[in-house]
Amino acid sequence: MENIFLIKWYGPFASLEDVKQWENEQTFKCSLYLLHGKEKYAKTSEKYYCGMSIRSVNKRLCDKGHHIEEIQARLISIYVGCLAHTDNPSKEQVKLAEKVITANLTYFAGAYNVLNAINTYFPCKNVCVINEWWKKDGMSIWQRQPKNSPSNIIPDVIVWHYNCNGGNDLLGCKKSRSLVK
Asked: What is the pLDDT of residue 1?
């Protein structure tokens, strides 16, 4: 049970100012963020970045030398994530959730398209991550997003089954759907 995470992603936000304003209106703390954009002179190649913050996400993104500087001129979207299964997640829990998201991005989008230089490998333990993609208002879930959006690349359910003798399994569900009408 300790490695099962429910992440509520909110967005997409178009700018750091939008994130700052939204965070100031919330009563809960967000510890994760996803960035999506293009480097300054890139024609088609889109970049992704998943990060964590123990401060507010906006303050973390404003740090000097942050990877957002590489895509800020052509930023497409920012998603802010909250570990919803607990009120006060530990730093280790946030790191583990970030590691699984980043490794999944690297696996499906390719290492060249992920700005994270570290955390590109799955952890040495079993982990389950459930992703929910909420609109900024927090009242409804996104049904459709652009094909290149992080919400379409990162599955709604990611199960990493680690076997110390090899034979690891990556399981998941790309998009969950309603079973009742």
From this structure: 61
Q: Report the percent of the chain where pLDDT is more than 90.
A: 37
Tens-place pLDDT, residues 25-64? 988 888 999 999 988 877 778 889 999 998 888 888 888 8
Task: State in Å, rounded, how far the first CA of the chain is from the last one.
Answer: 31
Cα 11 to Cα 134: distance, rounded to the nearest angstrom: 7
Helices (H), 48-153: 57-61, 68-71, 91-109, 150-153
Could you tell me the strand order of the sheet in which 32-38 lies? 46-52, 32-38, 75-83, 4-13, 127-134, 157-161, 169-173
